[in-house]
Protein 1
Amino acid sequence: MDTDIVFDSVTKRFGPTLAVDGLTATVLAGRVTAFLGPNGAGKTTTLRMLLGLVRPTSGQALVGGRRYVELDHPVRRVGAMLEATGFHPGRRAVDHLRVVSVAAGLDRGAPARVLEQVGLGEDGHRKVGQYSLGMRQRLGLATALLGDPPVLVLDEPANGLDPHGIRWLRGFLRGLAAEGRTVLVSSHLLQEIEQTADDVLLLAGGRLVRSGTLAELRGVGASASVVRSPDVTRLAEILADAGYPSTPALGDELLVPAPAQEVGRLAAEHGVVLHGLAEATQGLEDVFMGLTEVGR
Amino acid sequence: MTALVHAELLKLRSIAAGGWLLVATIVVVVLEALGFTLGATDGSGPGQAGDPHLLSQAVASASAGEIVLLVMGILAVTQELRFGTATSTFLVTPKRGHVVAAKMMAVALVGALFTLISVAIALPLSVWLVDVRAGSVLWERRVGEVLAGVVLVMVLYGPLGVAIGSLVRNQIAAVAGALTWLFLGEGALAGFLPKVEEWTPGGATASALQVGTWAGTDHVLPPWAGAALILAWAVLFAVLGARVTLRRDLV
């Protein structure tokens, strides 16, 4: 059974705003794929297009080769948890799950099972209005798991979770992927998923700026450098022409996704004065910040 | 579709608002029955205490909850958008027209239940009040006709509300707009263009319930056609809603 997620030149325009710009990517089964990007990068819009809630301006997003709206039993195929998903505050959590369960034709035991799974077994009979943000996130996860789907799409599931909850979520997502499921999880905070993800899709300004395994992305960090020059504007142009889009850092510094010797060579070739040049000892966080800035 | 209707009924049952709407229905039915009979002036003209046909007019009070059902129908759609539950609803059922259809059927079933309760209250209450006020009760064919109209109107007003909610989407605009139209717009139209008003939802309701026929009002449509016209309006709004406004991106 094909459970890959494929984005094929997906574009979404809201009036004059280009929210997602020609996104093409594949999310593989059995792996946790982090969908990373700063707030406003277009992550939620992309996920909502995948789930048939937002209509792409062009291109298409497919699950197992089909559009979401064409799936026969969407809840059994794809479990989704979206940031803006609401709950009626006056409805008990278990009733919220029952509504979905009945509409999807799932077995009667499903709501109780998923409540246990996300650690809300004791609180299912409380009204959602009495829930904390973290509990609501867990209820969202429970809703996604109702149909025991092979594909999970989770939008910022760590929002509102305390450190204990984030640790729980990490193990939970790893467990789901270990069962062979496709897990696509979005986040604007790298450290949330750094220990969880296998693959990364990095989105900025509606564009895919990097995709690959987490290890590959870490590799980008190793070949980056920080350069200081009285003429950063010209240096930035030279570097960009050479295929290294740099990011302005503090003062007259640039963060360059290229090894120091390459930056030095280019500067010498063009006669640009340098005040400092060093291999960037970047964490993944810096790579993330650097790359997403470039995309803006 | 059966599963979807079940899910929609569960949605209505699992929040307190459902119970309050039933209480509201009972209250307006009782008030309407009391008001009509006790408010009848002395005399033997149409609608007066001595009118032998008073019962056939009084039992129309059983339809007083139609507005409550209309609001319930509107809320069934607009609350989903207001609280964001529309997301999970459309994730389960990506074909949004199916959701609208299921909601219409669910509120029609609730309407049938509310009708049963309304008639069970309004009929004996009206019989008793008419007996007290007029001293005699005339069981005529029209009592049954009006009650049949009550059933149809009550069952159809919920779906009409769902259709309006699908079309308008904004809760306050939908509720305020619908009530303003029924209470003010219809009246104004009836004043200026009475023949046109006969074809509006309110005019169709008046035909179905034979409002004013006892006083000589001649409706363009027979009662059954009035009910069919309410259904036609509901279907028209629902199709427009599902095809146009409800298709919009859910962000």
Protein 2
Amino acid sequence: MTRLTIQRFTCSTIVCGALAMAAVSTFAFDGATTSPEKEHEFLAVLRSDAQGAEKAMACKNLAIYGSSDAVPDLAKLLPDPQLSSWARIALEAIPGDASDAALRKAVDTLEGQLLVGTINSIGVRRDALAVEALTGKLQHADHEVASAAAVALGQIANDAAVKSLRAVLTGSNATVRSAVAEGCVLCAERLASDGHAKVATEIYDEVRKSDVPLQRIIEATRGSILARGQDGIPLLMETFQSDERKLIQLALGTVREFPGNEIDKVLATELSQTTPERAALLIQAMADRPETVVLSAILHAAEEGDKQVRLSAVEALRRVGDDSCLATLLKIASGDDSDLAEKARTTLARLPGQRVDASIVAMLPKADESNHALLLQLVGERRIDAVPEVMKALDSSAASVRTAALVALGETVSLDKLPVLISQMVAPKHAEDAAVAQQAPRRPA
Amino acid sequence: MSNQATNIPRRRFLQTAASAAGAAVMAPMFIPASALGRDGSVAPSERVVVGGIGIGRRGGYDLGCFLEQKDVQFVAVADIKRKRQGEVKAIVDKHYGTDSCETYRDFRDVLDRSDIDAVLIATGPNWHATAAMTAAKAGKDMYCEKPVTKNISQSLILAETMRRTGRVFQAGTQRRNLPHFAFACELARTGKLGKLQKVYAHPAGMQALMSGWLVPETEPEQDVVDWNMYLGPAAWRPYNAKLLDGFNFEKGGGFVGAFNGGGVLEWGSHCVDLCQWAVGDCPPPVEYDAPKDGQLVARYENGTELIFRETGWIPLGSCPVRFEGEDGWVEAGDSGKLVLSSPELLAGRKVEEIGGYPATFHVRDFLDCVKTRAQTKGNADAACNAHIACHAANIALLLDRQVKYDNATHSFLNDEQANRLRSEALREPWRL
């Protein structure tokens, strides 16, 4: 059995976050699983005068069954415009130094697109021994080659690769500089994931201050904020306060993944200071942090101020509100502004929190006429089992309350209490209620 | 005959540095125009400017959903087929009553436009992941049709790239925004069915299909069909018109004798995605048995089974799923209907009022998230997990034996062959 270290599983960019991928893994490689018979079969095809189609399929099979023995024959195909990509399918997949060496050697002789492809494969395999060769290609006259080398170095992301990339970040051709910045960010991501936040932050900040496309700056800014930990809050808020829309958008996204609860307090303060347009969006981001959100800030935003901010806050309460929001929402739902009232009613129907239903029922006896109908409507929409309380409302002198009560009964009455509703249909206390009562029954719960 | 990717000068991306939008932010659609002091119209500054990449049959449906939205301005389309460029332009121009939809052969020309906020990627699956990653690096948000990735590696890189670039990504898994599927998943996810035991997905075909290297045919002029661009990241092969069916070309590719990846990816990327939602979007299963009697059983870490099966479904339309817990079950399909073990699970609602299509909800969800920067329902992490489950199942199908997957290292345990199938080299010059 041969033990090989596999350092090249292709997800080299996955260095942090929910996936928590271990990009470098070691596992036993049992040479028997490569099936020497099959390897010989497909190698024979490569060594024959078979047509391209057969050789392509042989390459594909060697990706599974090939060993280092297959590498020389595969490497011969790298200069072939038709079969180079097929050969790299196998060379990228076959573990061991032989594939790395073959790809490195090809870098010395290939040009153009085929060289770009070979460099891409080296990046995928994260071949540390290729750093010197790739560094040399950073100055290549073909910008696609230089860009490929920069990204490959970013995938390798060892000390030497980092040094090479940082050295050319400010000096390279404008086209290549974007790729160099991408490589730098890839290095920084890996460093941050490996616990080297300080140097990662330095790299991110170098990219941020470079003359590179805005998207590269966005990536570096996000990385810089997160790598700083709690010290990243000022940069996050500075980004939110930017004059550039895409940076504002980045801040809104980064708010949602920022750790801890200190940021929530800062956001609550910012909410009262920023423009209404930004506040409306900030509220949505705040509400996407349900574990730590400062609810009082959103509730306050719902109560008064700019209409779009209030609308956003009322909307957000659907996700993070609780029974403490009931009074405010009921007031808005009964208010004169139809947009706000409608949104508040929808929020009330969906308001989370275990105590919301009980609170609504407790409010029923003391409700004034306008609120009474609304509360009964909520009993129906939220399917609250409160038949006795709803029954009392049937005695109300207000037709709107009696109507709401009948509808609520229709939504919630159980089979055993169905006669209550039927009696209202056949013998209502108020004759005008009969029609409503007849429409009320639904499928009994 | 073209046999190399187009050597286009790398003018790309640099032009994206300049933002025409300035500091204006886009108000979410839940804020009516009246609240912004307007008469109901959507101001140009609050429209999401969208470009299309590879709009064919499925993409045409998506395009219709986008055009319905008042806050969308669809401005450009790229396609390797000249005929399709014209067809899409005609639809868009007719909708707006203008002649302004621009057409391109190379999708990177769409990405170069700094006025475009987001792209609709509806190419064949061969291009989905590569185009999505290229778009993200160019600073575009995207709605990307499924299957999104061709292998496990692409799935992981997709999730990380969207995170790193700060882009909003919506996979074309529109069932996540259909109320009856959402209701069924919520029953499972919130414990209404009791402890989940089995979730079922309909893969619509567990056999491999071929789209390899066919007999060469005369290649059309590049301006008519850009074969080189069509191949894109797929390994080179000569032109053959049969391969121009982008819907099937290289779907879930990477397999010996199965360049098409089989049906697990076709509907699995929908049904398995719903199963993933039902189990709380946890990491994908850790064991995948060899297929047996028309079904393949996979197991999550907690023992819940994910079962790919072709038959045994209640006739509820295409793309059915079924969730079974200790206390109940629910089954749903594209008819918009649900069947449940007990009416109590409806909590007083009727199946009819829960509702099903249209799929416009999914596009609306994407556009809202473009504005608010929230996570879409079909976000990249969710798509990543669902696709890994499909790819791992495909690998068990191909190897015809059980494989075990480690979600910490994203590798198969002591399985060299399976591990080699996690990724595949892209043709030059493409990279992720």
